[in-house]
Amino acid sequence: MAQGPARQTVRTTIERLHRSLFEFIAVPALIVVAFVILAEAIDWLDNHAGPAHSWSPLRRWLAQYVGDTQSAIGVLTAIAGSLFTVTSITFSILILAVQQGATVLNSQIVDHYLRRSSNRAWFGFFVGISLFALITLVQTTHTRAPIFGVMMSTILGAVALFALILLIYGTIDQMRPATLIEAMVDTAVAARQRQLPLLTVSKAPNGQATGTVVPAPLSGHLARVNISALQALLARHPDLRIAIHPAIGDFVTIGHPLASLSHADDDIVQTVGAAMVLTRKRDIADDAGYSLHHLHTIGWTAISTARSDPAVGSITVQALRDLAVAWRQDPPRASSDARLTYDDRLPLQLVDTIESLMVASSESRQHQTMALILDTLAAILPVMPNVQRRAMPSVMRTAAQLAASHTRTRVMGQALAQCEQACRRHGLHDEAAILSDVVCSQSPV
Question: Which of 185, 208, 305, 352 is least surrounded by CB atoms within 10 angstroms?
Answer without folding.
Answer: 208
